[in-house]
Design brief:
The complex is a heterodimer of chains A (425) and B (323).
Chain A lengths: L1 E9 L8 E8 L2 E5 L10 E4 L4 E4 L1 E3 L15 H10 L2 E6 L10 H13 L5 E4 L1 E2 L12 H6 L5 E2 L8 H13 L4 E3 L4 H4 L4 E2 L2 H6 L3 E2 L2 H17 L3 E3 L5 H12 L4 E6 L26 H13 L4 E3 L7 H4 L16 H10 L5 H8 L1 H7 L14 E11 L18 E11 L2 E5 L1
Parallel strand pairs in A: 1-4, 1-5, 6-7, 7-8, 9-10, 10-11, 11-14, 12-13, 14-15, 15-16
Antiparallel strand pairs in A: 1-2, 2-3, 5-17, 17-18, 18-19
Chain B lengths: L25 H14 L17 E6 L5 H12 L3 E6 L11 H9 L5 E6 L4 H8 L5 E7 L5 H15 L6 E5 L6 H12 L4 E5 L15 E3 L2 H5 L4 E4 L5 H4 L6 H8 L3 H4 L7 E3 L12 H4 L6 H19 L8
Helix pairs in contact in B: 1-5, 1-12, 2-12, 5-6, 5-12
The chains are: A alpha/beta (425), B alpha/beta (323).
Chain lengths: 425, 323
Amino acid sequence: MSLHIKNGVLVAPAESTQRAADLYLQDGKIIGIDQAPAGFEAAQTIDAGGHWVMPGLVDCQARLRDPGQPEKANIDSETLAAIRNGITTLCLPPDTQPAIDNSATVELIHHRNEMFGHKAHVYPIGALTRGLGGEQLSNMASLRDNGCIAFSNAKVPLANNLVQRRAMDYAAGQQALVIIQPLDHDLLGNGCAHEGAVATRLGLPSIPEAAETAALAKDIELVAQTGARTHFGQLSCARSVDMIRRAKAKGLPISADCAIHQLFLTDHDIGNFDSNMFTIPPLRSQSDRDALREGVADGTIDCLCSDHQPHEVDAKLKPFPSAEPGISGLDTLLPLALRLVEEGVLPLAELIARLTLNPARILGLPGGNIEVGTDADLIIVDPDIHWICHATDFVSKGKNTAFEGWDFNGGVTHTIVAGAIVYQR
Amino acid sequence: MPDNLNLQLDNNGRLRHFLSIEGLNQSILTEILDTAESFTSVADRTIKKVPILRGITVANLFFEASTRTRSTFELAEQRLSADILSLNVDTSATVKGESLLDTLQNLEAMQIDMFVIRHQDSGSAHFFAQHVRPGVSVLNAGDGQHEHPTQAMLDMYTIRHYKKDFSGLRVAIVGDILHSRVARSQIHALNLLNTAEIRVIAPRTLLPVATESLGVSVYEDLESGLKDVDVVIMLRLQKERMRGALLPSEKEYFRKYGLSQERLKLARPDAIVMHPGPANRGVEIESSVMDGNQSVILQQVSFGISVRMAVMAMIVGQSGGDS
């Protein structure tokens, strides 16, 4: 299989300027840029028509609800949603049912992805503790041999700091990446909205910043103690950005991401108890949002993710505190990200790095870049496609969007995974 | 999902649901109070009934225990000649796993015209109102820690009854503001009625963050907060608060925040003392104050009936009252 992409504008994460280029793909790899390699014959040619050619997005946190919650979503539905929206790699947190704490579940996930045609790459993140129970370490080394790219306890608390220290020690000894979503569950309590004027007015049980920052401070200390390479996921607070910035300056082996919706929404968007705005961590204040944007711009926050959490309709059809948290994010990751460029937060190539090269490097994945010899996971994006977001148009099985009615610019015209066209508009 | 604070008003600005004081305006609040006043005479008749809700079926849905709110709603409905269906949902379908929406739709199938709902989730009354069929009304009898608007209106009625006008008044609300839906509704109502000063008095653990944003001044010391007030509203202190490490002990709470005869002297000599009930004697309020001549606590309860009658009458488009 060989493919020639002509008339594209290359948006490479490592290059600060965009330029016109042709790409030549063969056997799943990029084998030539600008110049066709000797003897290259294209079986197929795509005319990119002057649109952007960029690496496929690497979403470092997306729940596909598979195995275990077919009423919400499955690998088939969500990998289709991914490729339709320019995401070629999905990293799956371990809180599936059963949890990703054994090799059989890892194999099941891979098997199901193959069964559904391997539309996108799917990488499981292993459980840090058995059954996510927070007490016994999982078989991390074996899980890694079977394809887990990192280890996390998702949003489930660990029994105590000793377990956390030992889990991080063990992971460090295995050169495994630990992923932590900093959350103090006592401070979280039954909270469902940011502790601020909105929660006060609506009488919603609130979540203080310290639910994140107190946990993060401890987590950073344990990184210093253990040396475990650690990625902090889905940060929501201004003070967290500061703490990550300072810890990085000290040379600690850490990285961080935030969910794309945190860069656009605040607690005011809860409006009149809109359960689609219920997320954990919660939508926070304007100043938190601004600080997160700064963190993304200056690189303190390395990656942006969808934090995709598809739900069946009934999960949100409840009074706000009883609804299930989370936003269906695959369909809006790229358009929201492109809006950051429109709003002058950061240049296009840097934005794309936070969605491709950075997560790929942190997680040790192939792809995420456009270079001769790399895997050919590519997308073509027409920046002038204008569309209005409607949940009813979502490809994801989860229609629980927080962006109903938003205007977006930019649409995916082609998605290429391992050198093959898996989606064409 | 409609996301509209004025879900409770129709296009002509008339009450369609009664969900929260927030989103209403002064003229509606005043109309409720005036209508309630016209209903007080109904209680003195030999036959305590008017036909305003004749032919209308009201379902009282209480997902949380309640004595006086529920019984005064039922009395109000009876006096308006409604047909009444009262469900204690604790022991009903939801424990069998039925969702709130299914419960609602099953009741709607019984041609209910008006729902009175109390539920532990903040926002549950709005949720109900967003999902009922057009023409069906929802009255909030308390949603989580959000609002309890009929309680606030009967409190406003009580204040107006004794003080006539709000514009010169200093009102203190004392106690567990954080968990109180009553306090939130009272604060909105007092502000809409142009109360001169609203104070909330509580230890910091019982205050929500940014309390001032509700339009009140905050006192953490009872004695300075009570100085020269015209109205003292005491809130119930739930005993669970000790377990959640919000307070050290009932004893210390009473020492610092309990309303005693001695402390009441700091308020204006003609100050009235209110409590939404049920009160804990000796925890937030001394017995002698509760039973004293400044207390209007029992009057609040009887005003509750006419205020609830007024809200229901206005929802069916009859605010004339004694018709």
